[in-house]
Every structure is written in C-alpha cells, then in structure tokens.
Design goal:
alpha/beta, eight-stranded parallel barrel, three-stranded mixed beta sheet, 15 strands, Glyco_hydro_1, GH, glycoprotein, Glyco_hydro_1_AS
C-alpha cells in the first residue's frame, strides 16, 4: 500500500495513534471469518432438507434477485466442507462462524422429526474443524426460516417464540458438547425491517410500521428465552457462551442541528434491539416509543403500532447476551428538515423516524464506502451507552464486483482494524474480529453481483473453485503475526498451510 494512501485513510480516523505503520493486537485477541447456511451450503433439497423462505422466494420470484440467481448450489459447502476447512487452515483462523439451516435439521419446522442427514453434515463440518483446532462459532438462525412456518405468520406470530426455542433446544442437545460459542439470531433489523417492513429481504412482506414492530418484540423474546434455556439448562454442563449478533450501521451528523436526528436513526435501526438487552433499564429506546406512539395516534390508531414490553418482559430480555455481537458495514450522514416531510408512506417505519441519509462523494469505495471513523465512533458509542460490554465483531467486510486484486478490500480491512485498535486503546472491550466473508457467496437479493470473499468463488466451475484474493494473503499475515502492518505486500502466487494449522 502506498504511504500516501495510508495517510489519506488514517486522516479519516482523526487519531494520532494511527500514525504507526505497525500495530500489535492484544495477546488474547482472536480472528475468524463468517458465512451463513443458505449463502454457501447449496444442497437445497438434498438429504431430507425442506423449503426455506429463501428457497421459496428464489424459486417463485427468481428475478427478485438482481442477477436472477439462487442458493440452490451456492458455494456447494454441503459437499465441499473439507475444502472449506482447508481454507480455514490456509488463513490460520482461530474460529469459523457458520450457521445452521433450520429446515435441514428440522424438515417439518418442528422437533417431531430430526433429519439425521442434516445432523451428520454439521457433525462432519464441526469434527473436521476441531481436528485442526479451529473453533466453531455457530449461529442458530441466519434468516432461512422454514417456509411452512412463514405460512403461519413467521416472526409476526407470537408462537414463533416457542417454535424457535424448540429448535434451539434441539441444536443445544445435538451439538452442545462440541460447540462452545452460540449466536442466537443474526441481524434482527434485517429480519424484521428488511423482511417484514420492506421488500429488501425474504419474505418481502413490506407491511412497514406494523409487521416489523411485531417481529421486533417476538424476536427479542425468542432470543431471550433461548439465552435463558441455555444459561439454566445447558451452560452448567456444556460450559459455553451465548449471545446475539446485531447489525449496527453508524448514523452520524455533518451539521450540529441534526445531532438528534442521527441519534434517532441509530435508535430506530439498531438500538431498538440492543437497548432492551444491553442498557441499564432495558426496554425499547424512549425516542422510538415516543415517536411511534405520537405518529400512531395522529394517524388514527387507538394505540401505538409498536407493541409494549411488559415489566416482566423487560426484565427477562435485559442482560440476555454474553457479548455484544456486532455486524458493521456502512456509515451515513443524517438530516431532518422540511424536505423530509411527506417523503415516506404513512404509516411506515421510515415516516416514524423521519430522516434522510446520504454519504459523501469523496468517501473512498464503490459498492461500499470506506469510513473507518464511523466504525470507531460506533464502537465508542457502544462502550459509552452500555457500560463497555464485551464486543465480538461478528461481521465486517467490503463488497467488490470480483477479481483477485482487491486493493480496496485490503484498504478496508486495514483501516477498520486500525479504527478498532484505536477503540481498544480508548478502553473498549473488543475480544474478536470476524471478516465477512471467507469466500464469495449468495448475497441475498444481490445474488452473486456483489462479492465479499477473501476467496473468489467461480460459480461457473462444476466444483465451485475457490481462489485466494490478495486480501486473503493480507488477512493471513495479520493472523500469523498478530500485527497490523500497513507496508506488507504479499506474494500471491501460492497459498499454503502454515505449520501447526
């Protein structure tokens, strides 16, 4: 990397600490990569697996996806799990985060039938990882709800709390002796707002300002119940940890008059899920409760469209996560003025919030913008708002359109790790960093048009060839040395497995 580029990137972090060309990570800091079942497994109808909401969407509305692709084969990890583990060894990972497919394990959606072929697949993957001392970090739910349960209302039906926790109990029983790090649910905002309150993710309900709020309450209660089940029944004998993974983009203000608007944007998009769990008093953020109630009454509703959490529910949810699992990709500036009035349908969650967002044209990046200062500010906000909870960064990554020479991704990882180190120096309790993603995969409604992988996936090859990008070699060097070296230039000819991996 050119030193001039380094100076440009670190200037956006506005920190004197970033002037060091080499920085060490804490001795006990851990690194991994992440994927999700539907995005990489393939084998969509093999071995007893039944239909998920993503199978249903991509088969009934194929071109709802940008490139009309689907996850029927994806990276074919269902058959190529040994190659997946070989890549983990090449990178030198401490851990690998993957998710379980609910309809692969419970084909009816319920625990009346456990699919042995699905269980065997996950046992094979876990055993292969453990053979090489790679720790499994397992997400119980990463968006692939059984279609059968969606027909019954999915996450808007309060019985989902029973359905999900029955499923969670099954996987604790099946894999808990081997898996010591559980993530209950991945990205509540994407499940509830993107899936139920808009048409950005399956099931594309777009019942905004109603369904997404119902989903939010049910999801939080389902997460909390799974946490308490594990904490009371399984932790004493399995000695693991359990937490939730929240998607938190950072909403900032360029002009002081929009400070409150930026705070509201953070509250509506991610603190609506983090505040009930991590704040001192629990419950939804007061700004969300006040704005939704006022809008609801104004619109003629007899009560707030945001369902209340009872005092008992507030106490049940509060404190129900061992770590703050953080997924972060984007930073936005926010404003709220007369131009925003009437901008969104009413009722809608966007209208309840009442802001507009933008990104600066001079921010580096195409599909993603590289704004490490936003990441630093987000980590600082989490520390200040929630009394410095232990944080595991469960996703952080950069999209390109493909190609092996991914210098922008290298810049992204270096600058965001640099910002993270600044936050650690300031006192933030950050334990681990997880790059999204180990390899290109099916990126939901973007299909394969956006590539996040350290390894490039050739979707045209019959054996789904995976080739390391420049970023894979740079990430490997970071893990090998436990050091962020801005001047390191890798030899990208051959990727090997270091001794001990």
């Amino acid at each position: 990397m050119q030193i001039s580029n380094y100076i440009q990137v670190v200037s956006e972090c506005q920190s004197a600490k970033t002037q060091n060309l080499k920085r060490k990570f804490p001795d006990d800091f851990r690194f991994g990569t992440a994927t999700a079942a539907y995005q990489v497994e393939g084998g969509w109808n093999e071995g007893g697996k039944t239909e998920s909401i993503w199978d249903h969407l991509t088969h009934t509305k194929p071109c709802a996806v940008k490139d009309c692709s689907n996850g029927d084969i994806a990276a074919d990890s269902y058959h190529l799990y040994k190659r997946d583990v070989e890549m983990m060894r090449e990178l030198g990972l401490d851990y690998y985060r993957f998710s379980l497919s609910w309809p692969r394990i419970l084909p009816t959606g319920f625990p009346d039938k456990i699919n042995e072929a699905g269980v065997q697949y996950y046992n094979n993957l876990i055993d292969e990882m453990l053979k090489y001392n790679i720790e499994p970090v397992v997400t119980i739910y990463h968006w692939d709800l059984p279609q059968k349960l969606q027909k019954m209302g999915g996450w808007t039906n309060p019985y989902i709390i029973d359905w999900y926790t029955d499923y969670a109990r099954v996987v604790f029983e099946l894999f808990g002796e081997k898996v010591k790090n559980w993530i209950t649910i991945n990205e509540p905002e994407q499940i509830c707002y993107f899936g139920y309150g808009s048409n950005m993710l399956a099931p594309l309900l777009n019942i905004t300002g109603v369904a997404d709020y119902l989903c939010a309450k049910n999801l939080l209660l389902a997460h909390a119940r799974a946490y308490h089940i594990y904490n009371e029944e399984y932790r004493p004998k399995q000695a693991g940890t359990i937490f939730i993974s929240l998607s938190a983009q950072y909403y900032d203000y360029e002009f002081k008059e929009f400070k409150d608007a930026a705070e509201d944007a953070n509250d509506f998009t991610w603190a609506i899920y983090s505040h009930p769990i991590f704040s001192k008093n629990g419950d939804f953020p007061s700004s969300v409760k006040k704005r939704v109630k006022a809008k609801s009454i104004q619109q003629g509703f007899p009560r707030s469209r945001l369902p209340e959490l009872t005092p008992k529910e507030i106490e049940y949810i509060r404190g129900s996560s061992d770590y703050f699992g953080l997924n972060h990709y984007f930073t936005f500036y926010v404003y709220r003025n007369e131009s925003v009035k009437g901008l969104y349908p009413s009722p809608s969650t966007s209208d309840d919030l009442g802001v507009a967002t933008y990104q600066k044209k001079d921010w580096k990046g195409d599909l993603n913008k590289i704004v490490p200062l936003g990441f630093y500010k987000l980590l600082t906000k989490i520390r200040n708002d929630y009394d410095n909870p232990p944080v595991i960064i469960t996703e952080n990554g950069f999209a390109t359109k493909g190609g092996l020479d991914d210098d922008d991704r290298v810049t992204f990882f270096r600058s965001y790790l640099n910002a993270m180190l600044d936050a650690i120096d300031d006192g933030s309790d950050i334990r681990s960093y997880t790059a999204w993603s180990m390899m290109d995969n099916f990126e939901w409604l973007q299909g394969f048009s956006e590539r996040y992988g350290l390894y490039e996936l050739d979707i045209k090859s019959p054996n789904r060839t995976r080739t390391p990008r420049k970023s894979a070699f740079v990430y490997k060097q970071i893990l090998r040395t436990r050091e962020l070296d801005w001047q390191y230039e890798p030899d990208t000819d051959v990727m090997t497995i270091d001794k001990g991996h």
